[in-house]
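Whether sequence alone determines local backbone shape is best considered at the level of individual chains. Part of our work consisted of pairing the sequence of a single chain with a tokenised description of its backbone. This step matters because it turns folding into a mapping between discrete strings. For completeness, the protein is quoted in full, as a sequence line and a line of structure tokens:

_____
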Amino acid sequence: MEQSDKDRLREKLARSIGKEPSYEEKKRRKERSKAKRAERPRRAEDDWEADDELASLHRVPARARERPAASERPDANEGGLVVALARTRVEVRAGERALDLPRPHGLELAIGDRVRVVGGRVVSREARRSRLARPAPADPRRELVLAANVDLGAVVVSVVAPPLVAGLVDRLQIALAASGVPTLVIVNKVELLEGSEAAARELAELEAEWRELGFESLRVSAATGAGLDTLRARLAGRTAVLVGHSGVGKSSLVNALAPESELATAGVSSGNLRGRHTTSAGRMIELADGAWLVDTPGVREFGLAGLSRARLRDAFAEFARFAPGCRFADCSHQVEPDCAVRAAVERGELSRRRFESYARIAATLDG
């Protein structure tokens, strides 16, 4: 490097050093910036980013969705009830307050779970006394719990539109019975029976069958209000999970029982008479008389999680009267010779519809 180039470099460095603020000046600038931030009004979103998915599930007053500072919380450690779930958030009912909290990692939750909240986070879950579960869509080896700690399984069906699918009632009753939860079949849209003798006859036959099997059933209409007083009395003081095909009117029933819930509803597709999905995630609604309802998304079909062939045979309790007459003690009632259960079906002593439902479920287990 020539001497002139060195001189220019020295002059450039000297100028840059002269522009560099001193340590004291840097400290003064930092203090001025901090003072300005303290004077600026604080926005709610600086502290708490609302989860639109959870807010859409449950209509909670804005003040209830705000996250109070830890020092302002009346209870740093408290129990609560899970009333709504979203992908990243969980809504917990703690006394009269609705807490919008982060969904914990590594802790599986379901609507109806009793949880412990510490410092604004869900840290543990109490043991479940009952549950309604199905195989997870993404991984059939895992269970997806739709509702926990329920006293009653309210299986909602409809007549005509969409048509009643008795096989789904069988599957749901088996899933509920696995936790000792009784089944109540709610037949909605009964006003559509007028002018449809075939549907009325089919329903009467099914109701007689359900009575023999020990299933209780009620006829109601969310549209006209028929049977709703009887349903309210049946639900009083209980936690019930509503489940059924899309379009049978679960959300309409909830709206009729608790108008303030304002759940979204939709009609039935005229192209194939299958209901449109209107409930995208489960949510829990409090009714009068201490009742709670878990409204679940409509299902197209319902798989049975962890069901063995032996448990399936036991679930169809009416077979037990004839099974001792089978040649084989572990008879599946499918292909074995000298099956007393199949013989009873042929004689009309057992419901052919129920036996065919059993065979369809057994085929899925074999598959």
